[in-house]
User: Fold these one by one.
Assistant:
Number 1:
Amino acid sequence: MNSDVFLQREMPHGQCVILRFGDGIDWSTHLTEAEAVFAEMLPLLRRHSFTAGRAALRMALRMAGTESGDLLPTERGGPNVQTGFSGSISHKDGLAAALATKGTQSTCGVDLEVVRAKRPDISRHVLTREELDADRELPAEERMRVLLLRFSLKEAIYKAIDPFVQRYVGFKEVRVTPQELGAADVEMLLPESDPELVVDAHWERFGEFILATARAERV
Ligand SMILES: CC(C)(COP(=O)(O)OP(=O)(O)OC[C@H]1O[C@@H](n2cnc3c(N)ncnc32)[C@H](O)[C@@H]1OP(=O)(O)O)[C@@H](O)C(=O)NCCC(=O)NCCS
């Protein structure tokens, strides 16, 4: 495998590709003409993450069984994937992750985070009252580990549910409880005005990185 490919395999919610970017790694030959024009308009750092994200998603979609057209951003910010497939992108610290699935009924979402020794405590912004209470007695390091997992799972869920709800969904509108071995319990707390969804989430740790994935389907 190309050493600039960090990971390329099937995961519980779809085909996953993670690419390294920066340090002279060039994924621009994987862009369509329209994507290259779009990338040119972006500031340099953003151009690298956009380009690697598109390259990763194109590879993941190929693994899911399709050749992709222009994967330009939709009005809501996610990648515009052809009908019959779903795709999602995340980038962090020189890695770009993409997840792709086949199917018209369900959508997928991905989020990549890096485990740092020192992180700001964002629990009050991200966790529901019940989540805060559940984590209160944990040792400090474990509490921060669970916080990062909950955060990442919620971001992956946001990307998966966005095509259905088409609005900003706050972090406290979803309750997630990470379990061992990558499982996670998900409770959607959306108002009745939103479509009723079944959402499933999963996480994995790769060295200093956490990858969270999600799948959403209308009830
Ligand atoms: C949109 C959001 C999830 C992106 O996360 P991030 O940590 O800033 O950045 P990431 O690298 O993980 O993801 C960036 C990618 O998200 C995708 N994205 C942006 N908006 C999106 C949306 N509305 N729906 C789906 N995907 C979206 C894009 O593909 C983007 O990459 P690209 O611009 O190169 O194509 C985040 O900025 C946000 O608004 N979060 C708040 C809402 C939330 O997470 N709620 C949780 C409860 S459900």
Number 2:
Amino acid sequence: MRTAMELAEHGQFTAAPNPLVGCVIVSKACRIIGQGWHKAYGGPHAEVEAFESIAPEDKALLSESTWYVTLEPCNHEGKTPACAALIERIKPKRVVIGMMDSNPAVTGGGMERLRRAGVAVEEGCLAGELAWQNRRFFWNAHEKRPWVVLKWAESSDGFMDGRPSARRLPGAGGFPITSEAARPMTHAWRALEQGIAVGAGTALIDEPQLNVRSIEAPSPRIILLDPDGCIGSKHTLLLRNPSLIHVIGETFATTATHTCAWRVSEGLDVLLERLYAQFNLSSLLIEGGASVLNDFLKQGAWNEVKRWTSPVAIGSGLPAPALPEGTLPLPDGRASAGRAGEDSWQNRLHPRHAFD
Ligand SMILES: [Zn+2]
């Protein structure tokens, strides 16, 4: 199951909004004869990938095989045929399931189908670790909203920008807090989430690109939080990113193809529900600025915080948000802090998330 979980991780940049799933098929003599993972949304499921990886001469071993699947095999025809139907047809000796499907409408269906077909089924193997691996997926299923990661960088004395507000003018450009060494990790943080959001102020002043450049991974979809309609149609984010979602009050006009109507007074819970319902966004990285981050913190509309701290003090400027009280470290001994060059990072969870 651990091997299956490691395989599942290969889909970390591409599977969303689908879950990460891995599958390992083991012969009666305990040899791995097939393995696979869910590579991309809409593509073949892990069970199918694993089945298709089996060498022709090993096909005869299938009837005595054990399948280790990190998530309950699906029992519904979606973009691909049901995996439970495939396994039912092969009828292996045993199937070990890591976690049951999170969707209350279908949970247990795949397992029942296999049992009825005479396959021995066990479930709950490494369930705690798998709940963490698919935290976005399970959160989506239960809460009908994206998993939200707040991200910022601050100086050693707690500022995000050393410039006085009079010098934070449109087009002034970003104010780098971290060094070049922090960039690959910052970009990996972006690639892990399906969407990346910034407020209109940050878009106007910093003109950030918000893409993934220093690692080999797809860029997230940009969400521009502009409820007061401050961003004109000539802004580079709008011109360069046809998939951008412009969140804008319904009384304002935009040239964006994808829009989400929202007013600040409706609250962030409503925005998140709307983004999920309209765009199936499984997760969102909030890159700023400070007032947007503070709004998400104040309204409790977040799941993780990722924060860089530079060793340099800048004395004055725009104060960084305060890390809330009671945040939790990542589960299972995963690193909740580390360094890149001179900069250090922290990754903390909302107090509601106890994974065990
Ligand atoms: Zn499936």
